[in-house]
Structure formats: structure tokens, C-alpha cells
Amino acid sequence: MTNMDGVDFVKDIYPNLSETERVRVDLAAAYHLIEYFQMSDSIYTHISARLPGDKEYFIINPYGTRFSEVKASELVTIDLNGTIIDDPCGMGANPAGFTIHSAIHGARPDVKCALHTHTIAGVALSSTQSGILPINQWSLQFYHGVSRHKYEGIALNLEERERLVCDLGEQNKVLILDNHGLMTMGENVGEAFTLMYNLERVCKVQMSVLASGQPVNTIDSDVCDLTYNQYKHFSEISQRGGFHAEWLAYLRLLEKVSPSYKE
């Protein structure tokens, strides 16, 4: 491993890459990490990233690939109208994925990456009325800033996009898709992935606690607010060479277990 600030490691991961190429590498990495941490759903669900530049293009996985098969060079480029700009594998994009991701990228220019999962814990929580309960430290990262969107069937109706972005709001980065699954968003791929990794653990813990049938310890609301703001502060001080320290740690993991994402 290189120095602790991660700068040398960044150079190793992104050798002479343009900003666009770096986004492609990061997005492919997120797919591999979702697979590695067992948050994928066969060939379904999707992660997208907005491409830099003045054109409203985003990239997404070729429809039909397992997440561990995704490569940076094979991502599909698509515009907000559904026009395929580049499709190296000739596999197209998941239609439901286009509906969801075009809605978010069209309405939220601050969102550079949107990540959607169907996990057992995430779908279970999305099927409850309570949402995320503030019952442990992990959950308090999501004490504020979480939206919900009512289930309307498989997301093939483009008219749903307006309702989805209305429910998401202008600032929130976490969306519970009722009876369906989870979404996280970020100013970069690393933020969206890290939010999802943490959110998945919260769902697992909450469903386990509820299944136990034991009385739940409550946390005072002022402590909930305090801890939520502490999470925000830790995120701000965890930058290393322009990248979040946790994201760099995940990339180091991929170098050992699934380095093909960079191809």
C-alpha cells in the first residue's frame, strides 16, 4: 500500500485518465462492489453516472450482464430521451433502469451517480410503513434526508418519472422505493456506493431487531440530531487527495478480488 493520504494510490488507479474515463472506472467499480458485498439481483437493478460535459449523457451497465462482468470500456452511454449514444456490447440498457435514472439525472444536476438495489433487507424495509427507525448509531446517518416513493409497478411508465422526482425532492440523497427497494445518490460514485453500503446494514439490523420481538431502546431526538450532524462532519474530514478515504479503501479491495473492472 502507498502513503496514508491515498495520493499515490489514486495515481495507480487513475493513471493519466481523463475525468470522463475516471467516472467510467468508478462506475464499473461500484458494480463489482455491489456484487462482492452480495447486494446484486442477478442481472437486474442498476447504477448510473452522469458523464462530464455539456451534454446530458449518463452511463449504465449493458442489460444482461452480471455486475461482476461489468467493465469500464463496455458501459452504455444514453441520453435523457433514451437515445443510445454508445453501446459497445450491443446489449442496450434495462428499460426500467432508464426510467428511474433518466428521471433523477434530468431533475437533479447535483447528482452525479444514482444507485438502485433489490436486497432482501432493503425490500423488507421498503415494505414496512415505519421506514428507517432511529434505533442505533448506524441508522442515525439517515435520521434526515430520506424520501419515499409509492410503488406503481415495474418502472416502465415514463410518466412515473415526474412523481418520482417530486417525491425525492431537491436535496435528499436517499430514496426508499416502497415495496420495491432502495436508492442512493451522490456527488460522485463513491458517495452513492458508501451510502448504499451503510443503508443496507441499517436495513439488516432493523429487520433483525424487529424480528427478535424484544423491546427496543429509544434514542432521544436531540442525540439523533447530534449524531446525524457528526456523520456529516466525519464525511467532510475524510477526504484524501480529493477522494473519500472509504472509497479508496474499497478500490484497494477490488485490486485484490476483482481488478477486471478497470478494463
From TrEMBL:
Signal peptide: none
GO cellular component assignments: cytoskeleton
A GO molecular function held by the record: actin filament binding
Domain Class II aldolase/adducin N-terminal: 25-207
InterPro entries hit by this protein: Aldolase-II_Adducin_sf, Aldolase_II/adducin_N, Aldolase_II/adducin_N_sf
GO terms, biological process: monosaccharide metabolic process
Family: Belongs to the aldolase class II family.
Matches recorded under NCBIfam families: PRK07044.1
Name of the molecule in the record: Ribulose-5-phosphate 4-epimerase/fuculose-1-phosphate aldolase
